[in-house]
Amino acid sequence: MAEKDKIFSSKIKYDGLMDFKEFYKFCYQWLTDESSLDVIEKKYAEKITGDAKNIKVEWEGLRKVTDYFQFKVDVGFEVINLTSVEIVQDGKKLKMNKGSVEVSIKGTLVKDYDGKFEHTSSQKFMRGIYEKWVIYSRVKEYEGKLVGDCNEFLSQAKAFLDLEGKR
Asked: What would the pLDDT profile of 72-99 be if each residue is shown by its tens digit?
């Protein structure tokens, strides 16, 4: 069984105007294009209450880094009281959304994801020595890269929401 080390966990919150459809697309494209993750949607749930929506979305992104290391990123969106509004900008009416969104991300470094070193107890022991003494600096390098990618995703998502809200 693969060894999974949770390296990063953080979230951002935003309350105000946004175009949720565009934000959703932006986040998906950033993860697939910039981080080279294979992203799948694990959950999408909408609950409509009057004219407002509550939405929960869960994504899982995987990227094979080497034959031994894999990045796993879990992204969650929780949108509360999303309503449609019209705003006037430069004399034009635009359809936007208003509500509260929370984006959370967890980054996990998966080691020996194929379980090649899991057949015997001596292989497990050797894997421990290999990770602690032989490839320690490589493990730290990949942990740093994963933290950087997760931080950058949150920064880009926050910047997108801030720019959209100031339209």
From this structure: 999 999 999 999 998 887 888 889 999 9
Alpha-carbon span 61 to 71, nearest angstrom: 8
- Rounded to whole angstroms, the Cα distance separating 110 from 12 reads 25
Query: For 35, what's the count of Cα atoms within 13 Å in the CB-facing half-sphere?
Result: 31
Beta-carbon contacts of residue 28 (< 8 Å; ≥ 6 apart)? 39, 59
Contact 109, 139 (CB under 8 A): yes
HSE (CB half, 13 Å, CA atoms) of 92? 5
Q: What is the pTM of this model?
A: 0.90
Phi, psi of 141 (to 5 degrees): -60, -45
Cβ(36)–Cβ(84) below 8 Å: no
Domain that holds residue 31: 3-165
Residue in 133, 132, 131 with CA at minimum distance from that of residue 112: 131
Question: How many folded domains does the chain comprise?
Answer: 1
- Cβ atoms of 94 and 167 within 8 Å: the answer is yes
Q: How far apart are the first and last CA of the chain?
A: 49
Name the token pair of 7.
């390296």
